[in-house]
From TrEMBL, chain A:
Residues that span the membrane, as ranges: 6-24, 45-62, 68-85, 92-110
Higher taxonomy: Bacteria, Pseudomonadati, Pseudomonadota, Gammaproteobacteria, Pseudomonadales
Protein name: DUF3325 domain-containing protein
InterPro entries per the UniProt record, alphabetical: DUF3325
Taxonomy, superkingdom: Bacteria
Keyword annotations of the record: Membrane, Transmembrane, Transmembrane helix
From TrEMBL, chain B:
Name of the featured protein: Iron uptake protein
Pfam families: DUF3649 (PF12365)
Organism: Azomonas macrocytogenes (Azotobacter macrocytogenes)
Coiled-coil segments on the chain, per record: none
Keywords: Membrane, Transmembrane, Transmembrane helix
TM region positions: 21-44, 50-71, 78-97
InterPro entries: DUF3649
PROSITE patterns to which the protein is assigned, alphabetical: PROKAR_LIPOPROTEIN
UniProtKB/TrEMBL annotation, chain C:
Protein name: Putative iron-regulated membrane protein
Keyword set, alphabetical order: Membrane, Transmembrane, Transmembrane helix
PANTHER family: IRON-REGULATED INNER MEMBRANE PROTEIN-RELATED (PTHR34219), PEPSY DOMAIN-CONTAINING PROTEIN (PTHR34219:SF4)
Signal peptide: none
Residue ranges, annotated region (Disordered): 230-257
Organism: Azomonas macrocytogenes
InterPro entries hit by this protein: PepSY-ass_TM
Highest taxon of the lineage: Bacteria
């Protein structure tokens, strides 16, 4: 359960990050350049797809009904963390999913 | 005296707000009460289910009423809307008018 | 105030006033609610005499049986509250009222453990929905506050024009913009949670708040309504009463006085054997407690109740009953009908007993953000009011009241809560009415906070009260080590101390930020494209 939960958390954050970078203002905030349209669209579509994957991970962690509740909570909270990180540590905000992935692997190995 | 109150814009604003607050809280509650009863009566469900469904929806109705009262063009119009509670209450509480009744 | 306001202006007015007047209550409700998510853990921390004895429920039931048979062999009813993951403690009691007066039993030595009396998590839980007022009155006041919250949420959506454009926007510069961004961020990102927790909170007491439908269709007879909903349960209970005093005329065998004629003595099956049977109904590790009526008699019945949380739906009064002598299943819980299940699911969503610790943490963090949203909203109101007061040179008293109440409610309540944890360790263990003293200290600290807020300037009062609260939080682990033997430090208590430290750091940071004069006064001349304060 903990592995699926960690995966869900990482995926939820990654999805929100992609959606956020799909907005011109925030893309500029981090990379200091205007994103091409195809990239913005790609990030948005990709972001939603990753959120769907997060939903699947939540279902694995909690089962169908509770998984939906957990998914809403994770998406909200990771989005909030992203929002707090953006002005203070934008680069960290972008690289955080790597840390989440490592954590997930760690949980997989130790469990 | 009354004329002076009526012509004073500050007093008018206060009266308007007071009437709306009363309409939203007290009036809104009675409207929701009547509406929930009417809904329970009219829903084509088994008696228990109708009560449950309409009761669970009551708070959404109440919220909508509060928002509507403050969005209405004038406080008097808001109270007119609240007066719709009367026909709803008749539907809800007149035994035998709809359905088999309690 | 213009005579005819636009829709957005009306909604902004409603948002700020509903948010302000009931926001003070709402903050108290949300903060205690947030802490209540970990009520059992707070209880555990509050009673350092308790140790996790690492026994299975079967071993615990065995020990309880031995003790009860020895000490209360002739009792009419035995109650055993079994050790669980969140509260690895066993307590026993006799008689009808299993909720109060349970004694803690050591499963190894089979002796009672003296435990200090403490308000702890239970106090926060009751405060959350009654505000420490008479129960029914308190429930209505909390319901009113919840309706204001619902109204503030809906109007907030209406007046926040750039809800998607500003979805991830947070500009922590000085002044009101940062507070407004923070308020919006807390609100928008957590909107599903805010709506869910407020609506489901109202649903818990729906039959108290809005009995209209029951009044219309059942003449207000709630019992008749729920009887109609479970005709099967009534039939299922039939065989149990069949072999008991049918002719006695009294319903409910636990409640009556001791029967004149007792059933003959009989050998019961081992009590621990029923735990596995109940787990096959409720799920592994989901049995919370058991009640044995007429123990040691031919008509002995074992009822087992589940933990809340094997599923989302919160079902109270669910139990599975067995004949304690033959082991025959007498009554299993029945699946409720869809509409009743809907209400149970909504209630369960509020109580957050499902999904284990990960879900508990999600709820804790989400409602922490709710508290932050309410607090920033209150601060925003004060900022806007300060500008208005300076502009028209009127309303100084009102501004003062708003400032003082903001400080006393937000900082004062945090102080009261952490102060109560300190009181738990500092008050003498043998003090009579100890839990009451803890509660008095909670309210006392709150009162002192109000006086202090009235005496000091707002900026200073915020800084000082948040600073003291931060120190108390940061010092909690230290206090724990000073006042108790190290043996009580287990994972749960250590985690609580760690969380207190983290909260302390956050409070210290807030005290530092808020204390700077520019942050509380707001910037007088800034573009006012956003409408979120007093209209």
């Amino acid at each position: 359960m903990l592995a699926a939960f960690t995966a869900g958390m990482t995926l939820a954050y990654t999805g929100m990050l992609a959606l956020c970078l799909g907005l011109e203002r925030h893309y500029r905030q981090i990379w200091r350049e205007t994103p091409p349209v195809w990239l913005r669209r790609g990030l948005r579509v990709g972001g939603w797809m990753v959120l769907v994957m997060a939903f699947h991970a939540c279902n694995l962690a909690w089962g169908a009904a509770m998984g939906a509740v957990g998914w809403f909570g994770l998406v909200s909270l990771t989005g909030f963390v992203l929002l707090l990180l953006l002005p203070y540590a934008p680069r960290l905000a972008v690289w955080l999913p790597v840390g989440g992935g490592l954590l997930w692997i760690g949980v997989l190995v130790t469990m | 005296m009354i004329r002076r109150l009526r012509d004073n814009p500050a007093w008018q604003a206060r009266l308007d707000i007071g009437l709306r607050v009363a309409a939203a809280t007290i009036g809104g509650y009675f409207f929701t009460y009547a509406c929930t009863a009417a809904m329970a009566r009219l829903l084509p469900l088994a008696r228990f289910d109708a009560v449950m469904v309409s009761s669970l929806l009551a708070f959404a109705v109440y919220t909508a009423v509060i928002v509507w009262v403050f969005a209405a063009a004038s406080a008097w119009r808001a109270w007119l809307g609240i007066a719709l509670a009367l026909p709803l209450a008749i539907i809800g509480f007149w035994p035998g008018l709809f359905g088999s009744g309690a | 105030m213009p005579r005819v306001k636009s829709f957005t202006q009306s909604m902004a007015w409603l948002h700020s006033w509903a948010g302000l007047i009931l926001g003070w209550l709402l903050f108290a409700i949300f903060l205690t609610g947030t802490l209540t998510i970990f009520d059992k853990e707070i209880n555990w921390w509050s009673q350092p005499e308790l140790r996790d004895q690492q026994v299975t429920q079967q071993e615990a039931a065995r020990a309880a049986w031995n003790w009860l048979a020895r000490e209360h062999g002739d009792a009419e009813v035995w109650n055993i509250s079994l050790p669980t993951e969140r509260a690895p403690v066993m307590s026993v009691s006799i008689g009808d009222n299993r909720r109060s007066g349970g004694k803690v039993l050591d499963p190894h030595s089979e002796a009672l453990v003296p435990v200090r009396e403490s308000a702890g998590g239970n106090f926060l839980y009751h405060f959350h929905y009654t505000l420490h007022m008479p129960r029914t009155f308190g429930i209505w006041v909390v319901g009113l506050a919840a309706m204001a919250m619902l109204t503030a949420l809906v109007t907030g959506i209406v007046i926040h024009k750039r809800i998607f454009k500003d979805f991830f926007t947070f500009r922590p510069v000085k002044g009101r913009r940062a507070w407004l961004d923070g308020h919006n961020a807390c609100a928008v990102l957590m909107l599903p949670f805010h709506l869910m927790i407020t609506y489901t909170g109202l649903v818990i007491f729906v039959m108290i708040y809005m009995p209209a439908a029951v009044d219309a269709l059942y003449d207000g007879n709630r019992e008749a309504m729920f009887r109609e909903a479970r005709p099967l349960a009534e039939k299922g209970a039939e065989p149990r009463q069949g072999n008991e005093r049918r002719d006695g005329g009294r319903q409910g065998n636990e409640r009556g006085p001791r029967m004149v004629e007792q059933a003959p003595a009989a050998e019961m099956l081992p009590l621990e054997s029923f735990i596995g049977k109940a787990e096959s109904v409720f799920g592994p590790g989901m049995v919370a407690s058991m009640t044995i009526s007429h123990p040691g008699r031919a008509n002995a019945v074992v009822s087992l109740r589940p933990l809340l949380g094997s599923r989302i739906a919160l079902t109270k009064g669910v139990e599975v009953r067995f004949d304690a002598v033959s082991g025959k299943l007498l009554q299993a819980p029945l699946e409720p009908r869809a509409s009743a299940l809907t209400q149970q699911v909504m209630t369960g969503l509020h109580f957050a007993q499902f999904g284990g610790y990960p879900m508990r943490w999600l709820y804790f963090l989400c409602s922490g953000v709710s508290c932050a949203m309410i607090a920033t909203g209150l601060v925003l109101f004060a900022m806007k009011q300060r500008l208005r007061t300076a502009e028209v040179n009127r309303g100084h008293t009102f501004l003062r009241v708003v400032d003082v109440l903001n400080i006393a409610v937000v900082a004062g309540l945090v102080l009261g809560c952490i102060g109560m944890l300190w009181a738990n360790r500092l008050l003498p263990v043998e003090l009579a009415g100890r839990a009451g003293w803890e509660e008095s200290l909670f309210f006392g600290i709150w009162g002192v906070s109000l006086l202090h807020a009235g005496w000091r300037q707002p900026g200073a009062a915020w800084r000082e009260q948040l600073g003291v609260a931060a120190l108390l939080c940061l010092g909690l682990p230290l206090l724990g080590f000073l006042t108790q033997d190290a043996g009580a430090m287990d994972t749960t208590r250590l985690s609580l101390a760690l969380v207190a430290v983290l909260i302390g750091l956050m409070l210290a940071w807030t005290a530092w930020r808020v204390g700077r004069p520019a942050a509380t006064n707001g910037v007088p001349h800034e573009p006012t494209q956003h409408l979120a304060g007093a209209g």
